[in-house]
Write a structure and sequence with these properties.
Strand order of the largest sheet: 4-3-5-10-6-9-7-8
Strand content: 25-35%
Distance between the termini: 46 Å
Structural class: alpha/beta
Shape: elongated
CATH superfamily of the largest domain: Periplasmic binding protein-like II
CATH class of the largest domain: Alpha Beta
Number of domains: 3
Oligomer: single chain
Order of helices and strands: HHHEEHEHEHEEEHEHEHEH
Length: 293
């Protein structure tokens, strides 16, 4: 294969990102026929088809999507280099873009970003999305890393994501500070009301197993898939709940809630996820290591 022509790669990247050859030709001040010829030469050099037509629209082939992933990395790093040169390497301010799962514990997120708050030359942004939106954003380089309670490496056929365990939090039975318990579950719990995570969540599954083991039927007052809402319900409803103590850390410190006991062998796991194919910048590596320590 001939040596990679980065002009061709740049043209491919622009057209693949826009999905419109005519638009890109105008933006880079090149004729449509000349741009088309450059793309054909690029594909010839690689000995693979990168595009296919659907009507008037150019659509990436499977090989094209893989080449685009590398092009995104290359030109993203190039933009960072350009900014660093403009700012002066020693004085360059770093920015960290973080995606967080919509229902992730806000207290956990706060503890993760605390080191960033203490660094003068580092800025950061936080965006909440569902799991699919997070992985799409990571793949499109909108995020440097994402925070989630799902191990996305499970079931991967090829190494797309790098998932690092940051914390393992015990799942606790939490109750109002005035509540009394007669001992180990289920003694003393009787027909108390419960506010619980929604069915299908890791925490709810652990609680269901505990109840089944002791033939206990909880009186469920409410359930939600939003951890912030579960925190409010646990604080204000007078009901018992099941969640990691980190979620209600402030309420426990304020004497509004208390931990009655842990669910044996049950934990919620918190992960930092990055692109497997991309080398981690040193400041991202330090941030992840700080969260794990």
């Amino acid at each position: 294969m001939p040596r990679m022509n980065y002009h061709h790669l740049y043209y491919f990247w622009r057209v693949a990102s826009a999905g419109n050859l005519t638009q890109v030709a105008k933006e880079i001040h090149l004729s449509q026929s000349a741009l088309s010829a450059q793309l054909k030469q690029f594909q010839h050099n690689l000995d693979m088809e990168l595009f296919e037509r659907e009507g008037r629209k150019l659509v990436l082939t499977a090989e094209g999507r893989k080449v685009l992933e590398y092009a995104e990395d290359i030109f993203s790093r190039g933009a960072q280099l350009e900014q660093a040169v403009k700012s002066g390497f020693a004085q360059a301010q770093q920015h960290v873009s973080i995606g967080v799962l919509t229902n992730l514990s806000r207290n956990f997120i706060e503890s993760f970003i605390l080191p960033l708050m203490q660094q003068d030359k580092v800025t950061f942004s936080l965006q909440s999305r569902d799991m699919q939106g997070l992985l799409e954003g990571l793949n499109q380089h909108h995020f440097d890393l994402i925070l989630t309670n799902h191990n996305v490496e499970v079931g991967q056929q090829e190494p797309l994501w790098r998932s690092e365990l940051l914390s393992r939090q015990p799942i606790e039975i939490v109750a109002p500070a005035t509540a009394t318990s007669g001992g180990a579950f289920p003694h003393g719990f009787g027909d108390v009301p419960w506010v619980l995570p929604a069915k299908g969540s890791e925490i709810r599954s652990a609680f269901n197993v505990l109840c089944a083991r002791h033939q206990y039927e909880p009186v469920i007052k409410a359930q939600t898939d939003d951890m912030a809402m579960l925190r409010l319900l646990a604080r204000d409803s007078g009901a018992y709940s099941v969640l990691p103590a980190v979620v209600v850390r402030d309420e426990i410190a304020q004497g509004k809630l208390k931990v009655l006991q842990s669910i044996p062998g049950a934990f919620e796991h918190f992960y930092a996820v990055t692109l497997a194919r991309k080398a981690l910048p040193k400041h991202i590596r330090r941030l992840i290591d700080a969260a794990r320590s």
